[in-house]
Amino acid sequence: MGVVIELRNVTYSYPLADKPAIKDVSLKVEEGKFYGVIGKNGSGKTTLCSIIRGFAPSFFKGELEGEVLLYGKPMSEYDQGELALHMGYVFQNPFNQISGVKETVFEEVAFGLENFGVPVEEIEERVMDIMKLTKIDHLAEQHPFELSGGQQQRLALASILVLEPDIMVIDEPTSQLDPEGTESVFEIISQLKKARKTVILVEHKVDLIAEYADEIFVLNDGELIKSGDKHDVLTDVSLLDHGVQLPQMAVLGHRLRKRGLNLDYIPITEKEAKDVIGRLIYREAQ
Amino acid sequence: MSYIKIRDVSFMYPNGVLAVENINLDIEKGENIAIIGQNGAGKTTTVKLLNGLLKPTKGAVMVGDMDTREYTTAQMSRVVGYVFQNPDDQIFHPTVISEVEFGPRILKFDEKKKDELVNYALEITGLKEYREENPYDLPHSIRKFVTIASIIAMDSQVMIFDEPTAGQDLVGIQRLSDILKEMLQKGKTLITITHDMEFVAENFDRVIVMANKKIIASGTAKEIFWNPEVLEEAMLKPPHVSRVCRELGLGSNIIRIDEAIEAIIAKT
Ligand SMILES: Nc1ncnc2c1ncn2[C@@H]1O[C@H](COP(=O)(O)OP(=O)(O)OP(=O)(O)O)[C@@H](O)[C@H]1O
Ligand SMILES: Nc1ncnc2c1ncn2[C@@H]1O[C@H](COP(=O)(O)OP(=O)(O)O)[C@@H](O)[C@H]1O
Ligand SMILES: [Mg+2]
Ligand SMILES: [Mg+2]
User: Fold this and answer.
1) Any bridge partners for residue A229, and if so which?
2) Ligand 1 pocket test: which of B10, B12, B13, B53 has the largest number of ligand atoms within 8 Å of its C-beta?
3) Which of A29, A173, B75, B90 is deepest in the core (most CB within 10 A)?
4) What is the distance of C-alpha A124 from the center of its chain?
5) What does the pLDDT look like over A70-123, one tens digit per residue?
6) Is residue A13 located within the same domain as residue A94?
7) To 5 degrees, how large is the angle CA B155–CA B160–CA B164?
8) Same domain for A190 and A141
9) Is there a contact between A284 and B267 if contact means CB atoms under 8 Å apart?
10) pLDDT level of residue A283 (50, 70, 90 thresholds)
11) Are A163 and A239 found together in one domain?
12) Distance (Å) from the C-alpha of residue A40 to the closest C-alpha of chain B?
């Protein structure tokens, strides 16, 4: 699969910062894959997103060493309009996303499409579809600032999804969502793969990352300390030393092994846990 | 008589949205309660009614012998501290220390008591090194602890935490858990809104479930997480271990990893 984004030995420092927020990170992002970015607070997840989206250094200033390539071309050679067409970015705090100039949820979702000059009839249809998908259609006429926290977060996601960018960088989109809403966001995001969209998602909810992502990047103090297949990464107990939680099923698996049970493998999802623990119980019953 | 009483309370926002409808709830001093439920269910509205940020449009809310309708929000907040869901709605000082000192200063605590409380609050929330920083230069997860410290420093009897677990990492979650335990030991009454079901299973005696403007259930975490009707109505999911244990037919009330491990070992 084609590489859409590549970082080569990227080190980045915010202005006036005494140490870099991202240190010597090299990585490749392939088209149509779903990447989960995990790491403790302050490890550099949001900064990595800003670099990938091209906000750092162009907007935040600061100093970037190394190379950032989008479709093989240096990020610095794209203008902001072009970047916005290729990439959508959902901010960590939904308040930063909401434009503040629109009176209703519907208009807010339509805002970006208007800016892109999409015809009115098409806007209406796309906005309605996305509002249904993100379950905010009943709020269409409400003011964006008169929503519950979770409703605002859904709105922030909807206003980016509606633009259908090829690459989506999404920073903790479910932090205020209820469990069902969280699961549906992951469901929506993983559906994007069918349209060959590439997703880079920051999340603390490792249980859902385990279920839906393809590959994982683990950051710690600005360094990429581990990356690759989710199964390899999310069963690695050394993540705990770096302040990263393992999926609950992996914790269960490791603790059962410690208690002497002979698990065939360490599960990371409920399905795997049922399989591997089920086999154990079945063997015992024989 | 319960310490906090919510009686037939409804609340409608000025824009006409009915957010809470005819709810009743009793809370005793020293309880440690979680409120869970879908986005928009009315959780934040309910707790804002407790500290007088919102006044019921119908019914009454009593805290001790105070009817919230008869007191200003400032007066209520001496008794009921509320940590906002969005820290940016709460913070308005240029440094962490001035933000955390604001409450005890307004309450006119003497210098010694104020300093003790402020230092204690900064210590327990892990903010000592950030004293002189501007809260807006801190990441969201730490800013949330600034708002928590501000409430702890006011030493109110009731403390309400609105989604403190949102966006927290492993260390942050552990810290929250420690704070709850310590406040409970001090005899505080604690109410926490959260969407983290594992956190609920590990940390609370009583769980209140809201759905569609109403309180639909109240019980222990075990009772709630093993009540399929309640879970369905509130569209909630029990902790992952509960689901796995249920499908493997291992006991009917497992909500924590420790319990799951014992149940699995007993079968093998
Ligand atoms: N400031 C406001 N003005 C008008 N309506 C509001 C306001 N805040 C919330 N609402 C509406 O009131 C209802 C209840 O909102 P509330 O904030 O209490 O929900 P919640 O249970 O805390 O949800 P969440 O989990 O998303 O924080 C929702 O329908 C919401 O749209
Ligand atoms: N706008 C900014 N200006 C200066 N420093 C920043 C800024 N944003 C983040 N940082 C610093 O960069 C580091 C990484 O932060 P961040 O990328 O936000 O981490 P995460 O998203 O993993 O919590 C931290 O040390 C943080 O304090
Ligand atoms: Mg971040
Ligand atoms: Mg809320």
Assistant:
1) A215
2) B13
3) A173
4) 27
5) 999 999 999 988 998 899 999 887 777 788 889 999 999 999 999 889 999 999
6) yes
7) 110
8) yes
9) yes
10) confident
11) yes
12) 5
Residue type, A85: L
Half-sphere exposure of B62 (CA within 13 A, CB side): 11
- Locate A178 and state its tokens: 């209820």
Q: Which residues line ligand 2 (CB under 6 A)?
A: A 14, 17, 21, 39, 41-47, 60; B 139
A186 and A272 assigned to the same domain = no
Distance B84 CA to ligand 1 centre (A): 13
β-pair partners for B158: B80, B189
Measured at the alpha carbon of residue A234, what is the angle toward residues A88 and A253, in degrees to the nearest 5? 145
ipTM for the assembly = 0.90
Examine the domain organization and report whether A168 and A256 are in the same domain: no
Q: Within B70-159, where are the H helices?
A: 73-76, 96-106, 111-124, 140-152
A50, A132: one domain: yes
| pLDDT (0 to 100) of residue A96 | 75
User: What's the pLDDT tens digit per position in A163-193?
Assistant: 999 999 999 999 989 999 999 899 999 888 8
Please indicate whether, in this complex, the C-beta atoms of A259 and B265 are within 8 angstroms of each other: yes
Kindly state whether residues A53 and A184 are assigned to the same domain: yes
Whether residues A65 and A92 fall in one domain: yes
Q: A143: domain CATH number?
A: 3.40.50.300
pLDDT exceeds cutoff 90 at A243: yes
| Enclosing domain of residue A81 | 3-246
